[in-house]
Amino acid sequence: MARTLQQTLPDGSHVAVGWHDGANGSRGSVSGDAGAGMPQLAEQLLRGGDAAEHPQRLVTAWTFADGGRAAIAAWSAEPLPPASREAWVTMAQRLVAAELAVSRAQARVESLEKSERLQQALYEIADLAGSDLEMADMLGRIHGVVGGLMYAENFYIVLYDDARDSMRFLYFADRIDTYVAEPDRELHAADMPNSLTLALLRHGDPLIGCSEDIRERLGIISDTTHGPDARDWLGVPMRRDDRVCGAVVVQSYDRAGIYGDEERALLVFVAQHILTALDRFRAREELERRVEERTQALQLSNRDLQAEIIERQRAERLQRALFRIAELSITSETLERFYTQVHDVVGELLYARNFYIALLTEDAERLEFPYSVDERDPVRHSRKLGSGLTEYVIGQGRPLLADRHRISMLEAQGLLRSRGSLAHCWLGVPLFRNEAVVGVIAVQSYSAAISFSLRDQELLTFVAHHISIGLARKQAQDRLLAAHTELEQRVTSRTRELAETNAELLAQISERLRAEQQLTHQAWHDSLTGLPNRAQLLDRLNGAIERVKGDKGGLFAVLFLDLDRFKLVNDSVGHAAGDELLIEAGRRIVSAVRADDTVARLGGDEFAILVEDVDHLHAVEELAQRILAELGEPCWIAGREVFPSASIGIAAWHPRYRSGAEMLRDADAAMYRAKSTGRDRCAVFDEAMREEAMRILDLEADLRRAINGDGFVAFYQPIVRLDDRKVIGHEALLRWRHERRGLLLPAEFIGLGEDSGLIEEVDWLLYAQAIEHLAHDKGGGYISVNVSPRHFLANDFADRLLRMIDRAGADPHRLRIEITEVALLDDVPRALRMLRTLRSHGVLAQLDDFGTGFSALSYLHRFPIECLKIDQSFVAGLIGETQPESVAVVRAIQALAGTLGIHTIGEGVETEAQRIALRELGCTYGQGFLFGQPAEVAPKLVALTR
């Protein structure tokens, strides 16, 4: 512009132009040649100064409407006439004003375009936050948006936790640095003190410049482990409520000075929108999680309703079965027909494919089997009383539910000896006539997938009572008919006996040969899959150990595999489908391993693989991954597509192992580690797992020492009258004062105590302390102690407890025992005798956690129960969403207690509202934190008034 104006003046003239932009406060540079001091004069005019008049000097300065200012200073080589001077100045002003208008218009266009790009970028970031993209995809798209605003080829986002002084890299993209972001990995400041990113987060303000300059400014030592240096580096923090919670960084390795104040301001603005996008993304994930939790809660509620419907249907089937049995005793033409129809009735209630009825002869010296249907033992012959399972039930006079392990235990104790094919699960209940055992009704299963439960035992016991009545009636009818036909049958039977004896001898010879072959195969193979079983695996493991020790080298490993969520298949589509899945799983495992590897089924959904002659542990892990991939392929089971998975534990050979059982144990422990970390993966047994096992051994040793010392103490929680909160008794609760870990609650050691059997001794220590406390306290209140089913059903429990009370000189009327419904129903005659013995000496019984068990109401009135303790789950539900259901349950319990003439105690009372609700429903007493925490020394007991 200055050169253009210079051309309008005589040769040798000098022109300078300058301006000050009022729109943004920036000052334009003065342009023109330096001759005659014109640039300095133009600068002076811009600042508001004046210039002396001169015939060869042409000057002017003016102010725009927006506050901007412009100035022109010229030196003409020749003096100009006044008119020419005025015309030239006017022309120069117009030219400069027009040029400045064009420049400003272009600047506004560029600013609008830049604002539009920024606004579009923010819209894209907001849209990405609300999309269904995964976090990594969303952050990648945000990187692309930032790259459209500035140079961002090297870009990363980091989150910062100022409380823990740690950070996590959510996203990292760099053309030189190979670091891979791990969003879930937490990096602590102590592990990376020289990180430039950590310095930015602690500094709290944007940082710009080359890496070396920034480190020098912040006093940070150069550390190449944090990536290469950048020639230009720009980092801005992300803030939430004035707290730094992260940062966004861009950098250039090739060019310096590409980031300036404009890029810094732009990135600060974009960073806050990125933080908003991350917050929205997390909020959406949290909402989805809550929706999922609510969905699961509704599913659980639906399952509970379905279970209630099933229970009602079961009760209806049971009622129909009893009516049918009563009808069959009258309408059946023969006893054989009666037995067959009874079998059909039982088969509608439980698994009864293998079913028989055994009866004692009149002289009670032989056992007859008038009816038997069995997959493996088609014929059961009459025999003298011996030591079989049937004779054991007759001798004990109570039901027996035993799996293969328990049968082996009873045989080892010399209590019985199994006859016939060995059942996987056996259930037998006695048949009574006038309170005398006359026979047994039994069902059994030969498959590991089918087992009987206590509910089945109770059901069969109930049905057996009605079968006994029907059988007695039918036998009386058949005896009358048999008396008329006995003479005719004798001749026929004698002739038939000889033929049957010969046939029986031949059948027994063939059966024994077949049984011998079958037993040999069963001893080493799994009956369902045909794979080697645990015994064969352990034999091969021990052989591998001996070979390795003999060769002084080599490596082998054992893999312990457990199918994930296998119980869900059994519960949803049935045990037959579960067996089908186990067979398919065994086939897939065999197809995935080498030909020389041993695949065994240990039982249930557990498999094991012995891998020999491997070069290194990595090859074993690759084999485990191959097995998991093979198992993970979908398959069709019972018409449904199933996606099975498994958890695998690996134990490699180490000289410390003395037997295969030890290696299998460690592989089992590693499998549980894999299952606990998410399933569908493998884990190798390491020293950490070994240390955990040693910790459990140490705790067991501490438990034994505490039993011999005074480590276990009784804490007492008050039981009060709800009306006036008067204490009427205390419940004695177990605590362990550990010499190093302090006071421990039962939950921290009860499982170990039950596994080791030491908990019984601990319980008797608690009983002794409670009784000793009663002996020294002369008040009238009582103390209650918890008695497990194992204690309660012991033959000498009552005598031992009463002797302890007598030795301490305590009043037995002030002692209560708390038992559960399971203890009552496990052996009804014994439980009844036990309660009557204790009650006759003054020790009363309370039923604990009432309403959570089987609740056999038909039996409850037979037992001398002094009190029902309402479970705390119902008390907690009296306030809140489940109030209607809990109120209905508590009201029903109160009605039952009132009918039986006993009182109730509400457990777990923690609020005044719960106390009022219980009192209004008729509950007399309560116990919980509202009335007092458990304490080592109970307050003075007071007399119980009712």
Automatic annotation (TrEMBL):
Taxonomic superkingdom: Bacteria
EAL domain boundaries: 696-946
Segments forming domain GGDEF: 554-687
Pfam families hit by this protein: EAL (PF00563), GAF_2 (PF13185), GGDEF (PF00990)
Positions with biased composition (Polar residues): 1-10
InterPro entries: Biofilm_reg_signaling (IPR052155), EAL_dom (IPR001633), EAL_sf (IPR035919), GAF (IPR003018), GAF-like_dom_sf (IPR029016), GGDEF_dom (IPR000160), Nucleotide_cyclase (IPR029787), Rev_trsase/Diguanyl_cyclase (IPR043128)
Sequence segments annotated as region (Disordered): 1-36
Protein name: Diguanylate cyclase (GGDEF)-like protein
Source organism per UniProt: Lysobacter niastensis
Lineage, broadest ranks: Bacteria, Pseudomonadati, Pseudomonadota, Gammaproteobacteria, Lysobacterales
